[in-house]
């Protein structure tokens, strides 16, 4: 028996980008003291208050099938939040609750694309983006965002690849680069989408982690609400990564059709998790700020440590829970640098090549361990880099 070509070609015949992470996880399981700076997993965990709300909802009986597009109260809570933050009229009919941002990205592209369609995505990209596009039968097309432009894509970058394309995926604040797309960048993106008749799929899961500039949802730009599908979740904003709870915001007709999709795939999201999500969102922005604050603080001292040397260069991180370092001066690829660092220093970081060709020669560092351990890891990482010169 043979498996489908669709599942066999998810990685395009190459790497899935997760080798260093998986190797580090195996080393930890074997008892080695690896400092894990690979994935965006908060070191604080989900708050006790949110867990208590989840527990109470489960004990209260919300353990059966929940409303498939999401509970009416959670959908309305999300709609109110989106409208307040973007100024765009949003009702519960514009909202679909999904099991996390990854599920939302899959569903959004499934809705926007036919098999064989060209689907644009910005490079550097989150490691799963090309696989997600292939999973819905689309042809991934990388649009390079260049380091010399602060990894901000330009109209020209998009236009050079947009002829015959159907959609464009963006992510701001960006994983892995930390770039927060400026108003000028988003205007250029909006113009390209309108000029080339593209669906815009906007991954906004890091919207609460902005250190410089301002998060702008492209759905709020003129002429964009009808062609924009926004994906968000509570994974990063409320440290609820394992709860698998997020949402899609889109035109009402899109949500109606996506409801049919989830009826035939996930069949909704666990009710007591939805209740906990509603509780979390109603705690206000102070909770989100408290979850984000450690990453801003850690970004600051990483910047200070990097400024004291000239081997590894810091990519300006305007948002998100990561920093990127340019390690090309060592003569190593990002992958070789990360592999050697893991073997010699027991520090696990993600190679830039996991995020596309534009990030080659870089590494991504997740700011997800306590301050002392992170500072020690950065010092040893910089010494490792210096020894390669």
How would you describe the overall organization of this protein?
With 389 residues, this protein is an alpha/beta fold. It folds into two domains: 5-45 and 286-386, Aspartate Aminotransferase, domain 1, CATH 3.90.1150; 64-283, Aspartate Aminotransferase, domain 2. The protein is built from 13 helices and twelve strands. It has helices spanning 5-8, 19-29, 48-59, 72-86, 101-112, 129-135, 155-162, 183-195, 252-263, 271-281, 285-307, 334-345, 371-386; strands at 35-37, 95-98, 118-123, 139-144, 165-171, 199-203, 228-233, 246-249, 313-315, 322-326, 347-351, 362-366. The strands form two sheets. It has a seven-stranded mixed β-sheet with strand order 2-8-7-6-5-3-4, sandwiched between helices. The chain has a five-stranded mixed β-sheet with strand order 1-11-12-10-9, with helices on both faces. Strand 9 (313-315) and strand 10 (322-326) form a beta hairpin. Helix 4 packs parallel to helix 10. The longest helix is centred in the C-terminal third of the chain and has 23 residues, at 285-307. The mean pLDDT is 96.
Task: Give the SSE map.
Elements: H1 5-8, H2 19-29, E1 35-37, H3 48-59, H4 72-86, E2 95-98, H5 101-112, E3 118-123, H6 129-135, E4 139-144, H7 155-162, E5 165-171, H8 183-195, E6 199-203, E7 228-233, E8 246-249, H9 252-263, H10 271-281, H11 285-307, E9 313-315, E10 322-326, H12 334-345, E11 347-351, E12 362-366, H13 371-386
Helix pairs in contact: 3-10, 4-10, 7-8, 11-13
């Amino acid at each position: 028996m043979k498996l489908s070509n669709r599942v066999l070609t998810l990685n395009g015949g190459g790497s899935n980008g997760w080798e260093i992470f998986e190797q580090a996880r195996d080393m930890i399981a074997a008892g080695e003291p690896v400092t894990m700076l690979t994935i965006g997993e908060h070191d604080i965990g989900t708050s006790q208050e949110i867990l208590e709300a989840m527990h109470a909802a489960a004990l209260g009986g919300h353990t059966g099938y929940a409303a498939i597009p999401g509970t009416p109260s959670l959908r309305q809570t999300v709609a109110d939040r989106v409208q307040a933050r973007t100024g765009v009229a949003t009702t519960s009919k514009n909202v679909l609750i999904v099991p996390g941002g990854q599920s939302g990205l899959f569903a959004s592209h499934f809705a926007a694309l036919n098999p064989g369609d060209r689907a644009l995505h910005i490079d550097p990209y989150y490691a799963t983006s090309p696989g997600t596009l292939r999973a819905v039968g689309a042809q991934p097309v990388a649009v390079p965002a260049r380091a010399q432009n602060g990894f901000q894509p330009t109209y020209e970058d998009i236009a050079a690849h947009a002829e015959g394309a159907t959609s464009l995926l963006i992510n701001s604040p960006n994983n892995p680069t930390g770039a927060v797309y400026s108003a000028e960048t988003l205007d250029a993106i909006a113009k390209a989408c309108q000029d080339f008749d593209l669906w815009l799929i906007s991954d906004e899961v890091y919207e609460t982690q902005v250190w410089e500039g301002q998060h702008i949802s492209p759905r709020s730009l003129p002429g964009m609400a009808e062609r924009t599908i926004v994906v968000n979740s509570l994974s990063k904003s409320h440290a609820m990564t394992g709860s698998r709870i997020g949402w899609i915001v889109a035109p009402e007709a899109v949500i109606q059709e996506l409801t049919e999709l989830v009826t035939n795939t996930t069949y909704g999201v666990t009710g007591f998790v939805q209740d906990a999500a509603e509780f979390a969102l109603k705690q206000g922005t102070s909770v989100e700020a408290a979850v984000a604050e450690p990453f801003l603080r850690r970004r600051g001292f990483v910047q200070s440590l990097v400024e004291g040397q000239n081997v590894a260069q810091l990519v300006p991180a305007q948002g998100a829970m990561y920093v990127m370092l340019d390690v090309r001066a060592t003569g190593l690829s990002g992958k070789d640098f990360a592999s050697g660092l893991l073997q010699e220093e027991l520090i696990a970081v993600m190679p830039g090549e996991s995020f596309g060709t534009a990030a080659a020669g870089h590494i991504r560092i997740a700011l997800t361990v306590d301050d002392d351990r992170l500072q020690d890891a950065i010092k040893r990482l910089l010494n490792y880099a210096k020894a390669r010169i």
